[in-house]
Amino acid sequence: MSDPQFVLITGCTDGGIGAAFARSFYRRGFHVFGTARSIEKMSQLKSIERITLLPLDVTSSSSIQAAVEQITPITGGKLHYLVNNSGVSYVMPALDTDVDEARKMFDVNLLGVLAITQAFFPLVRESRGCIMNMGSITGVLNAPWGSLYAASKPALITMSETLRLELAPFGMRVVTIVTGAVESNIMSSRNQFALPNDSMYRAITDIDAEKVVSDVTTNGTNGTIWRGSMASTVRWLMMKMPAFIVDKVLLQGTGLGLLEERAAL
């Protein structure tokens, strides 16, 4: 019988892609460690065997250390996949942005990923495993109202892709996942929105999670992959369309075009 393989996934709140990742890895025989700030936010996973739920705040060094101490003896000091999925959103015009809120967002979306990666790296190194980081198409779009959130994503993508090169000599992989509309429920803490267990739309999230997990576990993908609704379309548009056309679409789609028209009167 082969030795069990282990995966740690942050941001496994109900209805999001983190929970979908957990189910997908579970179906492939992995022992899954699913985490969120509160175990109560992972109710959809609590009755599934081989999924161990742990509280984890990616901005808290003591919370991270506690998770390391819980996971290490169970895994024998090896972690085959680390999925950095935790993220928060902040939608606001740049001039109206609360700087303290923006700092908190960067603490989760960028520095939290770094903190988790540093803490669990010894376990991933032992298995010559794979680190997966969640980017977003917002990181390649100049989308009005999302400047600070969008800024956090290319910062993460750059860090992730640089880490890939830094770990390549050690036979380790780093995968950056650029997601589309199916990204996650990062807005749930503000909107109280999450897909219920029986939602007919949950299959969309599950399907995209399946594709990503297949990419990294079966195909041995390394580097950047684009998955989720509109991700490939946005990638193509950004490469092929003139910038002024993309700007026009974004201005009209967010209502800023109306302000521009009124200013011209």
TrEMBL record:
Pfam families the record matches: adh_short
Keywords: Oxidoreductase
Gene Ontology CC: endoplasmic reticulum; lipid droplet
Name recorded for this polypeptide: Oxidoreductase
MF terms in GO: acylglycerone-phosphate reductase (NADP+) activity; triacylglycerol lipase activity
Family according to the record: Belongs to the short-chain dehydrogenases/reductases (SDR) family.
Organism in which the protein naturally occurs: Aspergillus ustus
GO biological process terms, semicolon-separated: phosphatidic acid biosynthetic process; triglyceride catabolic process
